[in-house]
Amino acid sequence: MGLNLREVEVFKPYVNEFPEHLLLNEGAEEAVLTAWQEAQILRVAKRGSSLLGAYAMQRQQLAGGGEEFCLLGVVVDPVFRRQGLGRWLTGHAIGVAESKGGRRLCLHSPPGCGGGTRMFTRMGFARPGAASAGEMVFDLIPE
C-alpha cells in the first residue's frame, strides 16, 4: 500500500521532533546535524504521530539585493521513499521561500546523492555556470 500524501501534514517541529534519526539514516556527520539544528526554517512531515520526512533551510541576503534561501537538505524515512514525499517536501520548501520574498533557492547536494540530484533537476533546479560541484539553484519569482 502506497503513501497517500493527503494524509501527510508539514509542521514546525516540537522540541522533541528533531529528525536526527532520519539524518543519521543518511549517514549525516556531526556538522550536518549542527547545521540542521541551527537552521532558521525546519519543517517535518508527519502522518499522525509518525515522522516521515523533513527539510531545513537558511535565509541569506543576496549581494544585489533580495534574499536567497539555501535548502540544507530533504530527508525521507527509507520506508516512504520513491512515493513522492521528497518531491512534495521540496515543493513545500519552494513555497515557503517564495512566500517569504526569496529570489532564489540554492541547494548543495552532497557527493553520491544521485537519485536526489535527478529529483531536483526534474523539479527545475539547475547548475549555474560557475557553480561549485553539487551546487544547484531554483529561481523564484515573487509576486
Strand-helix topology:
Elements: E1 9-11, H1 20-25, H2 30-37, E2 41-47, E3 50-61, E4 67-76, H3 85-99, E5 102-108, H4 114-122, E6 135-139
Parallel strand pairs: 4-5
Antiparallel strand pairs: 1-2, 2-3, 3-4, 5-6
Question: What's a concise summary of this model?
Answer:
The protein is an alpha+beta fold and 143 residues long.
What does this 3D model show about the protein?
It is a single chain. The protein has 143 residues and is an alpha+beta fold. The chain has one domain: Aminopeptidase (3-Layer(aba) Sandwich). Helices cover 27% and strands 31% of the residues. It has helices at residues 20-25, 30-37, 85-99, 114-122, and strands spanning 9-11, 41-47, 50-61, 67-76, 102-108, 135-139. A six-stranded mixed β-sheet has the order 1-2-3-4-5-6. The protein is globular. It starts with 8 loop residues before the first strand and ends with a strand.
Compute the CA-based radius of gyration.
15 Å
CATH class: Alpha Beta
| Elements, N to C (H/E) | EHHEEEHEHE
Mean pLDDT: 85
Any idea what the shape is? globular
Structural class: alpha+beta
Quaternary structure type: single chain
The helix count comes to 4
CATH H-level superfamily title: Gcn5-related N-acetyltransferase (GNAT)
Helix proportion of residues, in percent?
Answer: 25-40%
Q: Give the termini separation.
A: 39 Å
CATH topology: Aminopeptidase
What strand order characterises the main sheet? 1-2-3-4-5-6
- Counting structural domains, the number is 1
The number of strands is 6
How many strands, which pairing sense, and closed or not: the largest β-sheet? 6 strands, mixed
Low-confidence parts, pLDDT < 50 over ≥5 residues? none
Beta-strand share of residues: 25-35%
Which architecture per CATH?
3-Layer(aba) Sandwich
